[in-house]
């Protein structure tokens, strides 16, 4: 397989330089754009395998660029933002961004997220078994095993866990989870989500207080830890 | 901050009243004073009434804007003429003496109104100047403490990168990795300072929007501790949350910053072997968070000052902008809560944050 091409849309020259070093040294091909307009043109002429898109661009906001890209671009888009502004992040995720990172970020984290997104977009949705730690989720048989022993989950717990697992590595917003698991009228009833996540962690995590499978994305949502697809 | 005297407190209050309302209050005052004068006029004579009315004008001039004050002056002259100068209930002034008196009354009332107003303007300018001087003084303190706190990590980064760029050949691998970790520590510190500065300016702007959401306290506490531990702390940090702790409705981002700053403070100012503990409890509808340590505690005479902006303990060598704890107090108060500091009887410091919060015991219900 040839090396994956990543388009970086960011107006900060230093940031682009650093991303180029990081990505090229990890075996990715890197394309650059400094404005939203340039980015859209670049994406259309040489469609990359994924896009890193900064929210704060000089000509038009990253949200606008994301909206235009998503009209035809189906590969992963990861948002980069400087402020820890949860509204911006939630909005981007709701509008089709696959992930986000807040600057300053750790290089290891960036690469892990990119790999996870590229791996996911390479496989189709037919992934039937997802595992993380000593947990194995069989989406076809609707069973969850912990170290070989079948776990007893309630229907809601299973729906929530399988939704997270099917999107392994990807952050799902509180609103999205509430809507998908409980329905439209529950979008603001975040206490349900908190309670069920806590219950699930008690059943599947080694140390529920230091979760390694269902990770908290503070004020945004939850993420199933970068799992290995089988 | 300047302390407010009783008079300026009244002024502050009056400044919030619209000019129309001030006019209304002036008319009512003149009416009430006139009514009083109507009763006493037979005993004191109508010339004394003029002085009582003049006194009213001066009084109004001390409080209200120029328009209501001029209105008062004009109105009181008319009232005096119409109701008190014989013949009553006409604007006719029969004696030349009264005509001169009325004219003089009018001039004196207007002059006193204008003069009082002018004096107030001058006072206002002086006050603004004083406030500006205070602000400048505050900024100087800020700049002094900040330039040190910001320059130290910047200097570290510049020196370390210089070394790596120019003396690379002479460096051993250990040196190189030491330099890199110095850069890492310095940039984390810079990031933390910038975070604090941004939070401070959020507080100063007075524009803080609270975003309340249901919050799992155990998750929040462990998350915050995990973030603190990323800074390679040497102390042991214990988390205590009761198993039946309800969900609390609070601003998670702000509360996390409060706890982070309290923990960060504890890790900076206690010896490496200390134990820090953080706990959350629900008492009725109050969320109670406690961060305590078994370090040296605080000098009793300085306990009241530690939450002040830029305040740093005397005789402390370790850096700090003096912003961390003032942000803790600012955020706690923005959430209608309080933060207090006590020295523990057993030794060490105890910070207690109390926030009013709706609780949800859904957690303890059997559902589905």
Helix content of chain B: 55-70%
Multimeric state of these chains? Answer: heterodimer
- Distance between the amino and carboxyl termini of chain A: 20 Å
Report strand order across the widest sheet of chain A: 2-1-3-4-5
CATH superfamily descriptor of the largest domain in chain A: Response regulator
Calculate the mean pLDDT score of chain A and round it. 89
Order of strands, main sheet of chain B, comes to 2-4-5-7-6
- Compute the number of strand runs of chain B: 8
The helix-strand sequence of chain A is EHEHEHEHEHEEEEHEHHEEE
Largest sheet of chain A at a glance? 5 strands, parallel
Strand proportion of chain B: 5-15%
Q: Helix- and strand-based class of chain A?
A: alpha/beta
CATH C-level category of the largest domain in chain A: Alpha Beta
> Biggest interface pair, residues each?
A-B, 18 and 21 residues
Radius of gyration of chain B: 33 Å
DNA-binding region (chain A): 127-226
Protein name (chain A): Two-component system response regulator KdpE
Modified residues (4-aspartylphosphate) (chain A): 54
Pfam families (chain A): Response_reg, Trans_reg_C
What can you see in these coordinates?
The complex is a heterodimer of chains A (230) and B (368). By secondary structure, chain A is an alpha/beta fold. Chain A contains 8 helices and 13 strands. In chain A, the strands form 3 sheets. Chain A has a 5-stranded parallel sheet, with helices on both faces. A 5-stranded antiparallel sheet of chain A has the order 9-8-7-6-13, with helices on one face. Chain A is globular, with a radius of gyration of 18 Å. The model of chain A has no long low-confidence stretch (mean pLDDT 89). With 368 residues, chain B is α+β, with helices and mostly antiparallel strands. Chain B is 60% helix and 13% strand. In chain B, the strands form 2 sheets. Chain B has a 5-stranded mixed sheet with strand order 2-4-5-7-6, with helices on one face. Chain B has a 3-stranded antiparallel sheet with strand order 1-3-8. In chain B, helix 2 packs parallel to helix 4, helix 4 runs antiparallel to helix 5 and helix 6 runs parallel beside helix 9. The mean pLDDT of chain B is 86. Chain A: InterPro entries: CheY-like_superfamily, OmpR/PhoB-type_DNA-bd, Sig_transdc_resp-reg_receiver, WalR-like, WH-like_DNA-bd_sf. Chain A: Pfam families: Response_reg (PF00072), Trans_reg_C (PF00486). Chain A: Keywords: DNA-binding, Phosphoprotein.
């Amino acid at each position: 397989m040839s090396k994956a091409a990543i388009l970086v849309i960011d107006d900060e020259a230093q940031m682009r330089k650093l991303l180029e070093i990081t990505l090229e040294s990890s075996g990715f091909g890197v394309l650059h754009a400094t404005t939203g307009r340039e980015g859209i043109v670049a994406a259309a002429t040489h469609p990359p395998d994924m896009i890193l898109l900064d929210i704060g661009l000089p000509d038009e906001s990253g949200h606008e660029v994301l909206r235009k890209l998503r009209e035809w671009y189906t590969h992963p888009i990861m948002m980069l933002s400087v402020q820890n502004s949860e509204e911006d992040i939630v909005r981007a995720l709701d509008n089709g961004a696959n992930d986000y990172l807040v600057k300053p970020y750790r290089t290891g984290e960036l690469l892990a997220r990119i790999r996870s997104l590229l791996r996911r977009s390479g496989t189709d949705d037919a992934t039937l078994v997802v595992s993380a730690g000593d947990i194995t989720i069989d989406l076809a048989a609707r069973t969850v095993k912990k170290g070989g022993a079948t776990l007893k989950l309630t229907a809601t717990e299973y729906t929530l866990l399988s939704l997270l697992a099917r999107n392994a590595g990807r952050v799902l917003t509180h609103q999205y989870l509430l809507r998908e698991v409980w329905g439209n009228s529950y979008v603001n009833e975040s206490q349900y989500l908190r309670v069920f996540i806590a219950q699930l962690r008690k059943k599947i995590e080694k140390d529920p207080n230091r979760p390694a499978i269902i990770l908290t994305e503070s004020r945004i949502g939850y993420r199933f830890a970068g799992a290995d697809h089988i | 901050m300047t302390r407010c005297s009783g008079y300026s407190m009244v002024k502050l209050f009056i400044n919030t009243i619209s000019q129309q309302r001030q006019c209304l209050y002036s008319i009512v005052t003149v009416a009430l004073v006139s009514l009083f004068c109507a009763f006493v006029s037979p005993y004191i004579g109508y010339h004394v009434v003029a002085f009582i009315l003049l006194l009213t004008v001066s009084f109004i001039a001390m409080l209200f804007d120029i328009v209501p004050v001029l209105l008062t002056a004009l109105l009181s002259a008319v009232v005096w003429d119409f109701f008190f100068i014989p013949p009553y209930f006409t604007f006719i002034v029969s004696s030349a003496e009264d005509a001169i008196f009325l004219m003089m009354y009018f001039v004196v009332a207007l002059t006193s109104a204008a003069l009082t107003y002018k004096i107030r303007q001058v006072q206002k300018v002086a006050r603004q100047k004083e406030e500006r001087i205070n602000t400048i003084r505050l900024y100087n303190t800020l700049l002094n403490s900040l330039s040190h706190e910001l320059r130290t990590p910047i200097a570290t980064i510049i020196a370390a990168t210089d070394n790596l760029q120019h003396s690379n050949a002479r460096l051993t691998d250990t040196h190189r990795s030491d330099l890199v970790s110095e850069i890492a520590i310095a940039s984390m510190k810079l990031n933390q300072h910038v975070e604090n500065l941004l939070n401070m300016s959020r507080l100063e702007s007075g524009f803080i929007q609270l975003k309340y959401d249901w919050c799992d306290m155990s998750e929040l506490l462990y998350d915050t501790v995990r973030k603190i531990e990323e800074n390679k702390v040497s102390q042991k940090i214990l988390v205590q949350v009761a198993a039946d702790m309800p969900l609390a409705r609070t601003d998670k981002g702000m509360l996390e910053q409060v706890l982070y700053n309290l923990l960060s403070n504890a890790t900076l100012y206690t010896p490496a072997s200390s134990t820090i503990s953080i706990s959350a409890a629900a008492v009725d509808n109050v969320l109670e968070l406690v961060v305590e340590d078994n370090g040296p505690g605080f000098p009793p005479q300085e306990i009241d000052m530690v939450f002040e902006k830029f305040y740093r303990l005397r005789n402390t060598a370790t850096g700090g902008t003096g912003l961390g704890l003032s942000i803790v107090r600012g955020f706690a108060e923005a959430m209608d809560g309080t933060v207090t500091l006590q020295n523990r009887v057993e030794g060490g410091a105890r910070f207690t944050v109390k926030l009013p919060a709706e609780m949800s015991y859904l957690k303890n219900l059997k559902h589905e």
